[in-house]
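Lecture 7 notes. Example A: sequence first, then its structure tokens.
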Amino acid sequence: MAGTFAERKEVILETLAEDSSVSVSDLAKRLGVSVVTTRTDLATLEEEGVLVRTHGGAMPAFHPQILVRMRQNKDRKAAIAKAAAAEIQDGETIIISAGTTTALIAKYLLGKRNIHIVTNNPLLLTYARTNPQLRVTLVGGEFRPSEEGLVGPLALRALDTFYVSKAFIGIDGASVKQGFTANSVESADLVRKMADQADQVFVISDSCKFGKPGFARILPFNGVDVLITDAFLQKEFEEKLGEEKVRIVKA
């Protein structure tokens, strides 16, 4: 196939999601490029933090579920994260929850100055480590590879020590009856605590999660101030959120 690096990256990540350990020669055949080009691509992706090179091959740096989520609706997620970053002002202290879309917020903070991020999202470090204007406090807790998040009593206690201007929280689902939801009680408890510690609460989610409630309730719709989503939010949710005075930003 050859193509651009971006196209080859997509194939490499897709291959690693299917097979957690793949050889350079097998990848080169699938990509239709030389082994040298494949090694160069893998080195670049290792620098980006998305894979780990092994002797003669590579393996994913993240849980397969995270790789799948990183590839889904990429353009929408990037636009949503960029819109979220635009809401952040120089000098602010903010909370960002676990999630593949929320992690991208750090990528779009280039040009902002003196931003302090409190987070349970190790994936965010991939984008934050090269920006000297970002200060990141990572809360402790139990690491969940399938969520790329830290949860549990330690994380909850750590959040008690912070008070921030804005919280940017991810969700696993939303319904008119349940509001915003997560797939686990531990995640819901932690995200709710993050919201409690902030002046303003922003939900960051593409529209695909609406109408698909998760297991545990995070917050009712009127418990948030802003929803940042895409242009495909269903009308019933737009109307309900409007009734609850939630500002909707469509990226």
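Example B, a different protein, same format:
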Amino acid sequence: MRPKASLAVAAALCISLALAACGPNNSSAGGAQNWPRKGKPVELIVSFAPGGAVDTAARLVAPILEKELGTNVEVVNKPGAGGQIGYTALTSAKPDGYTIGATGSPSVVVSPLDKSRGAKYTRDSFQPLGMQVIDPAVVGVAPDSPYNSLQDLIDAAKKTPSKITASTTGIQTGEHFAAVDIEQKTGAKFALVHFSEGASQATAAFLGGHVQVYIGSASDVTDLVKQKKIKLLGVMGEQRSEFLPDTPTFKEQGVDVISATARGYSAPAGLPAEVATKLEAALKKAIEDPAVESKMKALGLQTNYLSADEYKKFWGEQEETVKAVLPLVAKK
């Protein structure tokens, strides 16, 4: 009897140990089910300075994310190097769902492709969670500028090459690509000034008269237009912006340049599936929340939600486009 009893005890012990191993404290699946832990906040990294469109959008979705996830969502700005500092922090974080980040292209697409930048991440280091908006680029000058049309500006930049200063929000950002594309297709030459902390820094320099031409996103200038602090010469969308209906597109003016910034949210690659599902659902709810959409629209931003899979595909397509034009940007 004793041997049978010993076997029974051993079997019971094995079952007990197996159940313990599958319990919520020792299983990634169980841990995901209990995510997020009560009282543990989610950090949302913004790779640009406060005040720009990326930062504003993140702060609009954060309260809805808090409600959906049941924990605090803390927006943390880590600007510099055209977004690379923040993207490095994001991809270096543990893929446990407690760190996510705003990802804007082409900056997030370009930085790992240019080996000279020494990025410690690749596209595969990010796990896309959803896209929020596509924001077309614009070109503007001071209200008292002698340039009253896009052609006026192009003619002047051809006549006095590399003399007219123009802003970007950093090296190899959307504005940088747009400026070089304009130069390649028109023969104009600008003296580009890169503001690595983002749109707020570039806008301050423009308003202060330190640069003559502002190249930025439509959302960054809607208030400036209302305040008559900028004269827009063109928008680089497929069609006119509903927020800037009086501004003609580049194509309308005979310049075949299309440029826009796509903004979404991502996590470090390797999230547990259930955590990714919760984050994706919460972000969709936040991005498509009527109050958030209304506030975004007031800022000149039209919501254009893409799911995680759709955003990943869009990201890959942008990467292929960037690879083709990167050599041109690397020269400036």
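Note on Example B: The longest strand covers residues 126-141. Confidence is low (pLDDT under 50) at residues 1-30.
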